[in-house]
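call fold(seq) -> tokens
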Amino acid sequence: MRPSGNVWAISDLHVSHKENSELVLRLRPEREDDWLIIAGDVGETVEHLEWTLDELGRYFSTLVWVPGNHELWTTRDDPDRSRGDLRYRRLVEVCRRRNVLTPEDPFPVWEGNREPVVVAPLFLLYDYTFLPRGAHTPEQGLAAARAAGVVCTDEYLLHPEPYADRSDWCAARLAETRPRLAELGGARTVLVNHWPLVRQSTRVLRHPEFAQWCGTEATADWHRAFRAEAVVYGHLHLPRTTVYDGVRFEEVSVGYPHEWRRQTFRPQGWMRKILTPG
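ret:
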């Protein structure tokens, strides 16, 4: 089978908000063989993920999912109280029961053009190396965030078990993922991660202290090293297209209703077209 439809992307659906769940009901492909990348933060409970995948799976031929921080939260509202890596593995099983591709599966190859493109879903987390100005250590960065009142909720709900902390979990994910990408040789790629791969993407944040929950300096060259046709990410709730080193970066967040109501930049609507056959 040679998939040849468009590849779309969207993230940060946050379907716990009624307006956002209604938006999901309106998402449709252009062609019956279109793919959809879902780049994390579907919701906060397992049920949110199940409902969203069931709905979108009716219309798109291939779904590709990566986790965001919200899926990894352990909240009081979710009957599933799993934490850390165990929670992530349970979400992967939710996807696999629906034939949705995850970072734990072989990378799919899109063959809509003459040169195949590997769509690589990644789960990398962050390690507090996107430090705010004036901070030289993660401890100083966290102190600056607390002083500014912008501490990420992950500090209370995203548990790192069995790792000592989120930085160690990030290091483990990097060590596992980089060799898989290196094995692709010279293949063209679309790199998909919930968190930005480069620090430049966070320069637009209203509160720069929040950047330390947004990625890792360890991936600063991945878009070049792994021949990225495009990099897809979310998390920032600032949808836009930028180009770094000649590579297109697509922030594809929907965000919360109070955010998207005031946004004026939404190229191609809610979903962003990443690859198109031709």
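The CA atoms of residues 63 and 99 lie 8 Å apart.
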